[in-house]
Design brief:
Blueprint lengths: L23 E8 L3 H10 L1 H6 L4 E2 L7 E10 L3 H14 L3 E11 L3 E8 L1 H17 L12 E6 L6 H9 L8 E3 L1 E6 L12 E7 L4
Helix pairs in contact: 3-4
């Protein structure tokens, strides 16, 4: 665990300190489904969990929809992002989305698809990325492919990802509102085990 007495910046209410001895932090900006939507998808994944236990399954609490992956940043860059992202969230209404179906990237990464207000989702991602650029933070602006990453295959067995994706083909989740914009760090708990994600901070969407 990191040492909370060593902070790169003093967090505000509800914000997590950028703790530890590391000078960099891996950062992305995302949306997160509510617990009800995640539970619904987890139930649909029940047979795959049982059949493909060797897959590297993401923790349910880490499921997210990435809007902009910023990669490894100096911890000093993160405070620059907070005020403009907070202002952006304050002007945007919540998005109505749903989880639907499944697929895979290169037979290695299993994902669930995103349905609902995709036009609004792409617009939000464009605005988020504009904020990042205005803050002078470099990042690889890959095209947005809305999805929820669920698991990764072991190197010696990729067939399980294809089979698990086929098992999700008929899944259609109930609509839900993406009500907050999340600034997430993934250096928390770094070590030999799986990567763990944790909010640095998040802001409610308050627009109408």
């Amino acid at each position: 665990m990191t040492d909370p007495s060593r902070q790169a910046t003093e967090p505000g209410a509800g914000e997590q300190p950028l703790a530890g001895t590391a000078e960099t932090i891996r950062v992305f900006i995302a949306l997160a489904p509510p617990d009800e939507a995640k539970d619904e998808l987890a139930r649909a994944l029940g047979p795959a969990y049982e059949a493909y236990a060797r897959m590297r399954w993401n923790r349910i609490e880490d499921w997210h929809i990435t809007l902009a992956f910023l990669g490894e940043l100096p911890v000093t860059a993160v405070p620059l992002l907070r005020p403009p992202l907070a202002r952006l969230a304050a002007t945007r209404p919540p998005l109505e989305l749903a989880l639907r179906g499944g697929g895979h990237f290169d037979e290695r990464v299993l994902w669930s698809g995103i349905d609902g207000d995709l036009e609004g989702l792409h617009l939000l991602a464009t605005e988020v990325r504009a904020v990042v650029e205005e803050c002078g933070v470099p990042f690889a602006g890959r095209p947005l492919r809305p999805h929820l990453t669920l698991a990764r295959a072991r190197r010696d067995d990729t067939s399980c990802v294809v089979a698990a994706a086929a098992g999700l083909s008929g899944f259609t989740g109930r609509p839900w509102q993406a009500a907050r914009l999340h600034l997430v760090g993934s250096n928390f708990g770094r070590g030999p085990g799986p990567i763990r994600y944790r909010d640095i901070t998040s802001w409610p969407f308050e627009g109408r």
